[in-house]
Amino acid sequence: MATISITMHFEYICLLFIIMRQNFFTLFFCLISMMASAQGYKISLKTTSFDSGKVYLTYHMGKNLNIADSGFLNKGKVLFQKSDTLPSGIYAIVFPGKRHSFDFFIDKTREIDLEADTLDLLNVKVKGSPENPLFQEYQKAIAERGRDLQLERMAYENSRTQKDSAKHEDRYKEINKELNDYRAGIISNQPNSMMALLLKAMKDPEVPNKKPATRQDSLDNYYYYKSHFWDGVSFMDSRVIRTPFFLPRLEQYYRNLMPQEPDSIIKDIDYKLLLARNAPEMYKFLLNWLTDEYINPKYMGQDAVFVHLFNKYHSKGMSPWLNEKQMETISRRAYMQMANLLGEKAADLNMVDTAGKPTSLYSLQADYTVVIFWDPSCGHCKEEVPKIDSVYKASWKKKNVKVFGVLSENDKVSDWIKFINQKNLQEWTHVYETKEAAEAIKASQSPSYKQLYDVISTPTIYLLDQEKRIVGKKLNWSQLNDLLQVKWNQKK
Q1: What is the rounded distance in angstroms from the CA atom of residue 155 to the CA atom of residue 165?
Q2: What is the pTM of this model?
């Protein structure tokens, strides 16, 4: 029974998370400044659970709770009041000790009275905010039906007869339909409410083929699901970023649904950032997350996405919230990647060989050239370099592959030559940059080979084609061998 054996619906889990945290809670602190506004806010809290102690007014963003304000209880009461604005979203009161908390909406109203008991956080009294009664009603409904779903799921897993399995499967589907009908009712009856906004944003598209029988059915489901994934989210409305489910959806979309080719990702993110330009907080959240996601990409070639973000946004002054140190880090990383993107021609390397004879990378004539930056004192290099040489001699050499080895530290020339002789690496082209050449490049303010090839650790390995275009980078010997096999098979 697929509906029970898999995890419960994404949207159910997200809101269930909100109301179940009171048993144990770890608070992540992230201070984000608020924009000044004459509107201000006035939020009072009364509790019988604590007489004193520090209380936090926080809001959801990403996977963290971020501090908007804090105060100290005096006889169980505290007032949060400032002239700063509180952007709309899901907020939370975190009690002393950070073990208990409860969520509430802030949308159009900024004067709210709260009364809460940590022993009954599903029945917090909220006055002054018409959005919260509906939210609290929803929380209770989700908690009740969530327990029922869990019980039916456990009963199904423990069923010993087909009849029992069918009974619990049918009951699970029935409860799940009740949940979906309940959500649909809120969206239909109160379409302008914040609760409706959140439910629409969390709703997963229903694929056309419930039981795909062919590969085409599965493809149709994928394309439909992907194209409708954001139907309920407006990237021109910043309220959705102050929820616990927006970031997981963003991660799911870019890591699992989007094709991982840089061009596809770039086209998609440019469109979303364009939509978000009229919602500054959404735009800021998206650009920050995308920059973090692709500054150290998980897949080869996706550094092109980060370079694009730098060229089109950061370098144009379109991320003014970044401080000088953050901007320096982003700029330095972008400049290290610009010259070595996949498909680009590799920079020539004009150095000297073990005998001091001038030798260049482009002087090598080969169908494929392996460029490896290494250091004889590097432990990983000592393991990787002999493995590369072994597979080179056994397989690559006869297919016109050549190896161009570069010493990464020019003060270790004698150790380098000794290692070459000990490991019998004479069939490679070995080069290094003299100290005089390095100083001349620095004096001319030209980029070093370490910048041109993004050499921040060793070994760093590239694969170049016949025209010296980069077809692979930052590989180990096994990945390099696999990539060459793919290239050879493509030629066949």
Answers
A1: 8
A2: 0.82
